[in-house]
Amino acid sequence: MRTRITVFVLAVTLAGCAELMQMLDQTDSPRPLTNQEVINGLRQALVIGSDSAATRLSAVDGYYRDNMVRIPLPPEAQVITDNLSLIPGGERLVEDVILRINRAAEDAAREAAPVFASAVNGMTIQDGFTILRGENDAATMYLRSRTWDELYALYQPKIKVSVDKPLVGNISTSDSWNTLTGQWNRLAGSAVGRMSDLKTVDTQLDQFLTEQALNGLFLKLALEEEKIRTNPIARVTDLLRRVFGQD
Questions:
Q1: Apex CA 155: angle with CA 151 and CA 161, to 5°?
Q2: Is 21 in the same domain as 114?
Q3: What number of CA atoms fall less than 13 Å from residue 78's CA on the CB side?
Q4: Of 105, 116, 137, 191, which alpha carbon lies 20 to 30 A from 44's?
Q5: Are residues 125 and 207 both part of a single domain?
Q6: Which domain holds residue 4?
Q7: What angle do CA 63, 212, 65 make, to 5 degrees?
Q8: Number of domains in the chain
Q9: pLDDT tens sequence for the chain (247 residues)
Q10: Is the same domain home to 125 and 179?
Q11: Helix (H, G, I), strand (E, B) or coil at 184
């Protein structure tokens, strides 16, 4: 009789433990994300990512020493680089212009993060869930498609100021560019140049530079987004860990 009672008590105890464990499991289960958490999490990821990207690019050599985003001469200037030997000191002039072009982009990148921060507020709930379930650069591509024109309009004047501002040796990027293209265009317009069918180069440097600088900025932003999505260490806030930590 005593054995039956002991078995009965043990069974009840085990049943209670199982029920308790089930309750604990339910308690530990993550609650579903709310719409507002998704939106706030994505906005936070974009703000953090864009700030990080802008900080990296605005540092000295942020563009110039990074082959992923280093800005070359405009395509129209290919004719110059193909004929460097025709220009006195041509190779040095070209590298100087490339350095200054990238310095101008680094200088303007300091203004990028606030522009991005104000641009993420239009994200809808539907946009948020589509982005959350999308590719690793879905938020970046959303931001690019929605804000490129606005960012370009806001960014180009900053680039223009940077291009015209003396940055290295009290010489501006536009001064260096004008020296290079001026020498080339004089050669192309000479009798020898016309006989050789050389073409003059006339490029709005600030427009080219704005597009290239923004391309580099979005590329870096995409890399930051991918880190937040795939690397738990990059989720530096509770909200990011909650939004991007769920399967």
A1: 170
A2: no
A3: 2
A4: 105
A5: yes
A6: 1-30
A7: 15
A8: 2
A9: 444 444 333 333 334 444 434 443 444 456 777 888 888 888 888 888 888 888 999 999 999 999 999 998 888 778 777 877 777 887 888 888 888 888 888 888 887 777 777 777 777 888 888 888 889 999 899 888 887 887 788 778 887 887 888 766 677 878 888 888 888 888 888 888 888 888 888 777 888 888 998 999 899 999 999 998 898 888 888 888 888 886 4
A10: yes
A11: helix
Query: Long-range contacts made by residues 82-91, C-beta under 8 angstroms, separation at least 24?
Result: 83/198, 86/187, 87/180, 87/183, 87/184, 87/187, 88/183
Residue holding tokens 């008590």? 9
Residues 108, 233: Cα–Cα separation, whole Å:
29
CA distance linking residue 28 with residue 148, whole number of Å:
42
Q: Are residues 10 and 115 in the same domain?
A: no
Measured CA to CA, the distance from residue 198 to residue 183 in angstroms comes to 13
Residues 71 and 4 in one domain: no
- Nearest-CA neighbor of 132 among 6, 41, 17? 41
Q: Which alpha helices (H) appear in the chain, and where do they start and end?
A: 2-28, 35-58, 78-81, 90-109, 112-119, 125-132, 138-164, 173-189, 191-195, 205-230, 238-244
Long-range contacts of 63-66 (CB under 8 A, 24+ apart): 63/102, 63/103, 63/105, 63/106, 63/109, 63/213, 63/216, 64/98, 64/99, 64/102, 64/103, 64/106
**Contact of 109 with 54, CB cutoff 8 Å:** yes
| 12 and 116 together in one domain | no
Tell me the residue type at 106: E
Give the type of residue at 36. Answer: Q
